[in-house]
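Changelog entry

Holo records now carry the ligand SMILES as an explicit input line rather than a separate metadata file. Below, a converted record for adenosine-5'-triphosphate, shown in the new format.
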Amino acid sequence: MAIKEAKVVTITSVKGGTGKTVTTLNLAGILENRKLKVLIIDLDLYAGGIDLLLKLEPKRDLFNLIDDVNNNQFESIDDYTCKYSEYIDVITSPHDPRNANKIYSKYLNLVLGKTKSRYDVILVDTNHFMNDINLVMFDASDEIVYIIDNDLIGLKNMRTMVSIYTDMEKKNYKIILNEAKKQKGYFTPYDIKHMINNNINYTIPSSFYIKNIEKYFLDGKIPTLDKRIKSYHKKGLANLEKIANLLYKVEKKESKAQIEEQKKVEIQNMLNETRK
Ligand SMILES: Nc1ncnc2c1ncn2[C@@H]1O[C@H](COP(=O)(O)OP(=O)(O)OP(=O)(O)O)[C@@H](O)[C@H]1O
Ligand SMILES: [Mg+2]
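Structure line, unchanged by the conversion:
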């Protein structure tokens, strides 16, 4: 039997502040609702803050993981993943931003190698730079998700990215228009489609604007796991569900949690048999 590996999905953009981090966390929440095991890697090395948003107190971060592997100090990946819930773990970005400079792209595949077999989905939150770290991460990803918003320069940059992907004949990217932001955009989805020379694969609708989103994060809550959000933001959630389907088609595969549950039952049955 083949060893099941997590699907690696990188969330990125061509300009800052489009909603990458919020979308990463909301997708993680939706995957948790489906009882899928999720690892979030905060690859926004200089300005990451997922530990703050989820109220985590990591003992070690991504830099420590790579540094320890390098110095033969690595023992278990559990020492570097921080538990948010039964289903969601996080590897946080360097606590000391000076250490971000010491994270080399060549170690990313090593980190994935140590984690892929333990999760259903690995969500990687990035910054918007086209640097070596992000490019290597894109190459290691099954799917790259671009979050765009209604901004002229951002849309121009997205068009450039689309033409680069076309030249490279790479197709494993999706474009998500985030309309759930405060300011009303000038361009219509029709304009945007033509400006970026590509389809908008999904839209996070303006109705998914969460007025007091900071309050959720101050309490360490993922909005998509919250009961109020689930009942008041049905349309936005439905669209996020569609994006999650792209990341993981649960109906086609058994989740890690289901496999573990099944294993437990099998072991229990074996024990019962031997006791007879
Ligand atoms: N659904 C939403 N409702 C309300 N505000 C939102 C929503 N999605 C994003 N925002 C707001 O948009 C801003 C940018 O979001 P976020 O931090 O996720 O962007 P980012 O792309 O990760 O930014 P950076 O490039 O700095 O990492 C934040 O202030 C966030 O609160
Ligand atoms: Mg971010």
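Spot-checked after migration. The chain has one domain: 7-249. The radius of gyration is 19 Å.
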